[in-house]
Each structure stands twice: as structure tokens, then as C-alpha cells.
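From: lab user (bench 3)
To: helpdesk
Subject: output format question, protein + xanthosine-5'-monophosphate

Hello, I'm new to running complex predictions and I'm not sure whether the block I got back is the full result or only part of it. Here's what I submitted:
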Amino acid sequence: MLNPSEFIKESIEKIKNEIGDEKAIIALSGGVDSSVCSVLVQEAIGNNLIAVFVNHGLLREGEVEEVCGIFEDRLNFVYVDASSEFLEALNGVEDPEEKRKIIGKVFIDVFEREAEKIQAKFLVQGTIAPDWIESEGKIKSHHNLALPRGMVLELVEPVRELYKDEVREIGLELNLPKKLVYRQPFPGPGLAVRVIGYLTEEKLAICRKADEIVREEIINNNLDGNLWQYFAVLTDTKVTGVKGDQRDFGYLVVLRMVASVDAMTAYIPELPWDVVRTISKRITSEVSEVTHVSLSISDKPPSTIEFA
Ligand code: XMP
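Helpdesk reply: Thanks, we reran it on our side. This is the complete output you should expect:
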């Protein structure tokens, strides 16, 4: 059994010894793993840790304000709005794997620029146990990372031995807001994996609005505790609808609401029909570009949780 206060005390000592007086950098996404690591390392080395929050233009509604609001005063925090750089690089790209690769590459570019500015020697990462157990422990615990322009950073992974539920316990002990600690996982490539086909500002905005409605309804109806993830996918399929007495031709949105323990497998739990119907009604009435909402009922496997 993990003793959170013991763990925090021991980690802080360990991190102090590892990093000493050098500078460290972390990519803070606002997810529980990178948030916990940021706060732990800040407690150990203070402002020698720079937490960089990159807006890649693929975040959810309100996410920038939320993450900045929580961390601006608590960390040596740098907000980088690189959304146009990402969206330009993604312009005209349809293939999901291609999108992921581009996002990864631009992210490293942006991040390396920040690491160079502060001459960081260490990179803090929120790796947790399932991340490396899946690769059969082949990744060494202490390793370096060479960045494309030549910087070499030594990795520090404070929660490497922990599982998600344990990271959450540490987050609570560190007084991180409950909303953040229990936040549903959100993939690194963000809405790029939930907008099918070409990415445009318009499609991202539609996906964002639909996603916000899903989140509001699930949270307001206290269903978030039973779901691993709940979100909206904007397909590139257009379907006929009718609004008022006018024929309409708009997007098909798919609702994906899954239960899981570790995302390796997932299933669709019983969902309260009234909530599903409310979500559908709200999306078609509040997001004018959408004419049709459908519900995904496929487990993982055979489907993956994300659509791309
Ligand atoms: P799939 O879609 O493979 O997703 O069933 C399993 C879990 O991983 C998340 N996911 C990602 N997380 N970068 C991430 O940080 C990614 O590229 C990525 N792709 C999927 C997904 O949200 C789910 O929780």
C-alpha cells in the first residue's frame, strides 16, 4: 500500500539529489501525471523547474484558462501558444498516423526551443508504470533524450513506479484540485484524433462545442465517476437533416462513452437514455453545423477508444 506523504517526502529527497542546482523542464499538459510531477519537482528544486504548457490548438473548450489558472501562481510556468504553428503543419493532412507524427515533431521543436532558452539539463516526464511495463521493461530507468537540434536531456521520472490510481492519491496529497486529479484522460494529439479527415479551425470548433456539451451533461448527471472517457467525435460524413421546415446538410457527430480500468480494454456501460437523448438534442440545437448524433456501442477490442 502506498503511503502518499511518505512517497512525497522520499521523492523530493531523491529529486533534489538527482537534479542538484541544475535547471529542469517539463511539458505540463494539465493531465494528472504531468501535473503531479510538476508539483513534486517544484517542491524539490523550486523555480529551477520550468513547466511549459504548449497550446497546440487542439485543446478542449476552456482548457487553456483552466490549466493556466491552476498553475500560473504555483509553478515557474510558461504558456506557449503554438496553435498556428501546429495547424499550419497539419494543413491538408488526412491520415491519422501522419497527423500524430506531425504533432509529435512540432511539439518537440517547440519544446526544444524552450529548453534551449533556459539551458535545461533535465527533462521531467510523467511516465507511469503501465507506460513502460507495456514495452516489457526494455526502457532503462535512467536514460537520456537527444533532441533534434542537438540538446541532450537527462530524464527524471518521479512517478515511474506508480499506477494511475496511486498518482491520483499523490495529487490529492499535494492539494491539486479534485477536478484535475480525476480528470478523464485526454490524448496528447488532442482533438486531432477526434476530428476525422482534414483539420480546419471550423471543424475543431464544432468538435469543441459538441465535446463541451458531452462533458457538461456527464458531469452534471454525476456519471463521470463510472466512465473512463466521454467525448464527441466529429466525423467527416455529412448527412441530411431538417431544421424548422428547411432541409439541412450537416455533420455526423459520434458520442463515445466508455468504461475501463486501464484503457487496454474498454466496454460500453449501461447509459441513462435520458442523458444520451439530452446530449443529442443539445448538440443538434446548439451546434448548428451538426444534423445527426449517433452513439458508439463498440467495445475495445475490437475498436480502439479513440477514432483515429
Ligand atoms: P486507444 O484509442 O488506443 O486509446 O484505445 C487508449 C488510451 O490512450 C489514449 N490515447 C493517447 N494518449 N497520446 C496519448 O497521450 C496518444 O497519441 C494517444 N492515443 C490514444 C486514449 O485517449 C485512451 O485513453
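A quick orientation on your result: The first strand starts at residue 24 and ends at 27. Let us know if anything else is unclear.
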